[in-house]
Every structure is written in C-alpha cells, then in structure tokens.
Amino acid sequence: MVLYNILITKPMLTINNLPKLSVQNLSSVKDLTKADVMSIIEVANLFKKNNKEKNKNIPILNGRTIINLFFEPSTRTLISFEVAAKRLGADMINMNIEGSSLRKGETLIDTADTLNAMNPDLVIIRHGSSGSIKEISSRLKCPIISAGEGTEEHPTQALLDAYTIQDNQKKFEEITVSICGDIEHSRVARSNYHLLKKMGSKIRFVTPDYFKPKDLDSFDVEYFDNLELGIESADIVMMLRIQKERINDVNLPSIDEYFKHFGLTHKKLTNAKKDVLVMHPGPINRNIEIESSLADDLDKSVINEQVENGVAVRMACLAVMVK
Ligand code: ASP
Prior knowledge:
This protein is α/β, with parallel strands linked by helices. The protein has helices spanning 2-8, 34-51, 76-87, 108-116, 132-137, 155-167, 187-198, 227-230, 255-262, 266-269, 292-295, 303-321; strands at residues 65-70, 91-95, 122-127, 144-149, 176-180, 202-206, 222-224, 236-239, 277-279. The protein contains 12 helices and 9 strands. The longest helix has 19 residues, at 303-321. It binds aspartic acid. Residues 148, 154, 187-188, 241, 281-282 line the site of aspartic acid.
C-alpha cells in the first residue's frame, strides 16, 4: 500500500524505496522466492497504472546505462525491455550483434569484458545456448537479466504470465494450468512450470508424443497426449509455438494434421472452465497452434494483455534490480 502513496506523489519514488530481490541476477525463476515474485507483481502493478497515463515516465533510473544483448531474434521481449528502460529514464543501448566484433571472431568473454569496461548498470541477455548467459555474466560487475536462454529459461516471460493470471483475479493456489504444444523445445514452458508450481498452481503438460519432454519424470505434472482431455476444466490454457528453429530430431506432421489434433479452437476450448484464459507468449502462428479467431477473441484471449503487462513487469524487474 505504501507503494500506491508513492505513486500519487510520483517524484518521491526512488529505487531505494522499492523492495529488493533476494538475488543479484535474474537468470532463473528457480532462484526466486515467493516473496520476490510478489514484490515484482506489486511494483509492476504500480507501473501498469502509470503506463496508461499520457506522461508514462517515472525517471527513477535517470543516468543509468542498460544494454540489450540479444543473440537471438525477438520482437516483444527486446522492445518491451527498451520501452521499460526508457520509461524509467535510463539510457538504453541495443547492441547490434551482426555488426559487432563477434562477427570478427571476438569471443563472448572478450565482448563481455568490453561491455563491462563501459560500466553498464544492468545487461539484458538472450542467447540460444545454455550456459552462455552465465559465461557472460561472470565477466560483468553489474546485474544481468535473462531475456531467454536456449530451451531452459525465460524468467521475465513467466513473471509477466504470472502477473497476467493474478491481474485477471485468478488465485495461484486454486488454478489448473494446461501448458500445451511443443514443450520439449520451449523455455517458456519450463520457466512457467517452475514459477507457477512455486506459487501453488496445478500444472498439466499437454503434448503430442513427439514433443513430450525427454525429462518428463523430473516435472510434477499431469501428462496428456490429447488436447481436449488435457484442457478439461482448466483455468488457464497456455499455447506454445512449434520451436522450428530448435528442432532437428522430430518428423513433424503436416500443418493441417497438427492443427486438427493440437490446434486450440473455440470448439475444443468448451472443455475448459467457462472463464478460462487463453495465453500465448507470442509470436503466434495462426491456425497452427491456435485458431486465428480465438487468438483475437478478447473474451478468452489475453495475448495482448500479456504484451502490455510485459512492459510493466520488465519495468519492475529493472527498478528492483539496478543498484
Ligand atoms: N517468445 C518466446 C521465446 O522467446 C516464445 C517463442 O519464441 O515461441 O521463447
């Protein structure tokens, strides 16, 4: 509640009167405590209200330098971190990997040392292979936030999904979340599993056999290989894109065949709870994993809300992590 008073007197808000996380780096949701998650949600709530104002700036990170270091393509995550940093008044630099010395043979370590020498206050990193973010962050003196790592983690996606669930008046301990589609290759599925499990939700994995995670036994989930059954009475249906860029060991069926069995449609969704929320981290592939009209159906789909909330949640992460 203190935070709302702070919001009314905007200039009073400083990074010193915001809660701090129990971790220095946000590379895995596994490291966060429940209190950390609730702190991020509370601060994001404050920013979300302000993001609807004409003047969206709360320049508490004035003078700070934040670098976006993305080794994989991104639309939502990259832009929302940039918008978030700018609304907080930070100087945000997007490093262009293609035009960098990495293409001249410089190693990750030397690139990290170079960035470190410029004294950034926080670096946001997306990388396709597990371990690379740790390697880079080991050379940096500032905190880092993972913007997605291989098939392992996408912590800010899971945080914005948790925020969206709570913002829609769902209680974590009372809900069943069906995560559906290409789970084997999805970092969104893994981060959401770990975060929502921590918050007390029941999780189901719903995948065709060829996308069943090889380490299924390590997850405390109900497993279904049938979409209609897997979403029965679910409160949240989270659809995933087929991660074609990471697939080399699966013979995929035709698009029509996949959509017939694993595409979410209005018809199949009648199996879920009446007030079910349909979520998707984006980018969506219409009429492959989700019926186009369902993706646009604002009575069910919160896909655009997820994007809107992504800005507030990333503002919160930056605000509580920059020292
Ligand atoms: N945008 C999400 C990610 O980076 C999901 C996806 O690409 O399908 O993992």
